[in-house]
């Protein structure tokens, strides 16, 4: 049930991002999402009395996870989505299971069982069918495609690194810390470099809807749900499950 809810809400998130980024700078948008997500998930962790303190000696791996899972993904996707359709971007982004599975075999020595391999092949075949009529459009926007695929590769690597060098925190605390750390460079860039405003009153109703959906649904529930699933399931299983999102 958690995976079904996650993929449904993440699927709706791609057109919501398109609406938000039509009127808001990528780094301003992502800063709001990450900060609201960190605050919301920290509150969830505190309310359930989960430990928040990062264990000694694990800050380094936590920073690496935050940069791979949140900073790189959010920045690359935010710049790519305005360059192409949201559906096309989602399909390319969810090539992630290929990279995660390969990294899992290499780094974690996970066994690629026939069932997992079949699931991966069938899922990617479906993705290829969805992309088949979009090849010409992708060729017209090569930069957007490169940014999205790079985001997928780094997300796949981050998923594997999270299992190879785990941080001794429950899912809520780990998610909140990653978002808080990831927000720092993006927020600084938005404040000092990128033109734009954090004033949500300047947005139209569709753009505001997109921003609020991301702040509340995508960056509080969905990010927590993904970390929860990724921590307990094998990489091949959790990543293949995300292939439902583009559909």
Verbal overview:
The protein is mainly alpha-helical. It has 11 helices and no strands. The chain has helices at residues 2-21, 26-47, 59-80, 86-93, 96-108, 114-131, 135-140, 142-164, 171-192, 205-232, 235-241. Helix 2 (26-47) runs antiparallel to helix 9 and helix 2 crosses helix 10 (205-232). The two termini are 17 Å apart.
What's this, in brief?
This protein is mostly helical. It has eleven helices and no strands.
How do the strands and helices of this protein lay out in sequence?
Layout: H1 2-21, H2 26-47, H3 59-80, H4 86-93, H5 96-108, H6 114-131, H7 135-140, H8 142-164, H9 171-192, H10 205-232, H11 235-241
Helix pairs in contact: 1-4, 1-10, 2-3, 2-9, 2-10, 3-8, 3-9, 4-8, 5-8, 5-11, 9-10
N- and C-termini, Cα separation? 17 Å
SS strand fraction = under 5%
Protein structure class: mainly alpha
Count every helix, treating DSSP H or I runs of 4 or more residues as helices. 11
Report the mean per-residue pLDDT as an integer. Answer: 90
Largest pleated sheet: none
Q: Radius of gyration over alpha carbons? A: 17 Å
State the order of secondary-structure elements, H for helix, E for strand. HHHHHHHHHHH
Low-confidence stretches: none
Quick one: overall form? globular
Percent of residues in helices? over 70%
Based on DSSP secondary structure assignment, what is the total number of beta strands?
A: 0
Give me some keywords for this one.
about 250 residues, mainly alpha, about 75% helix, globular
């Amino acid at each position: 049930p958690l995976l079904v809810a996650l993929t449904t809400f993440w699927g709706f998130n791609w057109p919501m991002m398109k609406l938000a980024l039509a009127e808001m700078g990528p780094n301003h948008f992502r800063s709001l999402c990450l900060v609201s997500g960190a605050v919301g998930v920290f509150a969830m962790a505190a309310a359930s009395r989960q430990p928040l303190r990062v264990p000694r000696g694990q800050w380094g791996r936590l920073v690496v996870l935050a940069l791979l899972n949140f900073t790189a993904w959010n920045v690359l996707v935010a710049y790519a989505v305005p360059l192409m359709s949201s559906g096309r971007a989602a399909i390319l982004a969810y090539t992630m299971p290929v990279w995660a599975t390969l990294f899992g075999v290499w780094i974690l020595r996970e066994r690629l069982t026939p069932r997992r391999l079949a699931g991966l092949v069938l899922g990617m075949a479906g993705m290829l069918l969805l992309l088949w009529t979009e090849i010409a459009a992708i060729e017209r926007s090569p930069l957007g495609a490169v940014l999205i695929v790079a985001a997928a590769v780094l997300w796949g690597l981050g998923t594997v690194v999270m299992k190879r060098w785990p941080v001794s925190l429950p899912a809520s605390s780990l998610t909140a810390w990653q978002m808080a750390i990831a927000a720092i460079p993006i927020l600084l860039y938005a404040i000092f470099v990128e033109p734009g405003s954090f004033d949500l009153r300047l947005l139209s109703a569709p753009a505001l809807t997109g921003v609020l959906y991301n702040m509340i649904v995508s960056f509080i529930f969905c990010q927590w749900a993904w970390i929860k699933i990724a921590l307990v399931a094998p990489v091949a299983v959790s990543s293949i499950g995300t292939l439902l999102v583009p559909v």
